[in-house]
């Protein structure tokens, strides 16, 4: 490890699951095995991502590709050198250092070799689960394309130019490295790899997507786009379909491949009744973060979110019984479902989009940030997240939008807008409630079995969204939000939301073509 500056007394490389579990239990506080054998860990003070502390190094290789601004805040190269050395110095002070060598991307033509250097066995097991394990022979001459230095247990120095707090998450495309200081939340590593792929793939004219993916018995492929907590993992885990992946994919000229080797599911209120595939995946080898565990029985209480609302479980794909491995498919998507969590409670539970609407809503990325997924999010908050992936975009949203538009036109994919948020009223109102999962599943089933292609549709005012008037198992007052509200307040809410859409899209208006602009609200 000398090429990375790592000279710790004991370096453990690519340990098996049992060894990493043993080390975590013996070396880390508040760590235990659940009654089902999963490793239960604490991530410390930070229990969600820290997007305000993310920095991208300003250098000549990537500076003309990166979308500079609030998402990609620049860090001078000199500052990066200081931050990097601080991380290495801390790593070298630890008696145990863990190396995880693995791949990002199942497609042999487009995979990246990733090396993770960490000081916690929990972090090593997490990335072992979420990346793709190489064969033993591949490890003998493994030369990484991208290196993560995870020194998250040690604070950053906010006296360094460009560093604003004790937390620092830095990515350097010239050196192909990432450095983490001041946060032990494992999701930072996962999303760092995703951000890397969001940078690399468009350079090859490939489309990286914040999406889940599954495939039906007839080979039909569905992509679910959405922010964390909007339903990607839940809806793609379907007993009638094979899972490709739950969060990160790339759409190529041949089909779709998963970037990851595992899943990272939210655990709040997890039950076998609602989500059997995910519930049963929480076994030996899985990593469960920040949950409350009964000290006597070691049973996880998924309803207790006293540590954080953002309780999580990371498990390898093979923990899901109907997964497809290798996690890739040589067919193009039949359906794309844009997941929005509408806290205004006016977007229909499902709408059929034309290409112009699909592009407008993809670039807008209207949804809400779900409680706990980021530091400081304590209640559902309306947000516009470009491409349903704004925190992870390396390039301007229009780069991804143009790639998507080209593919939609080439492959005549059906596009749907699915509201997994509020119905009958806005969040916090007397009548407003989150749409029950059973209705959302019935809608997705109707998309997959083809009944929605031939359904009768009605147009929503202002947004011009076409929604079906009838779906088996879903009440009419759920499908038609205006009926569910039963008051004139609905119309006012629609107008208020339309104004928010128009205000948000001003950011992209100059870069958008005329057809995309036609997909937005009318007279907003």
UniProtKB/TrEMBL annotation:
Protein keywords: ATP-binding, Decarboxylase, Gluconeogenesis, Lyase, Nucleotide-binding
Any GO CC annotation of this UniProt entry: cytosol
One GO term of the biological process aspect: gluconeogenesis
Keyword match Transcription: no
EC number: 4.1.1.49
Enzyme class: lyase
PANTHER family: PHOSPHOENOLPYRUVATE CARBOXYKINASE (ATP), PHOSPHOENOLPYRUVATE CARBOXYKINASE ATP
Name under which the protein is recorded: phosphoenolpyruvate carboxykinase (ATP)
Species, as recorded: Babesia gibsoni
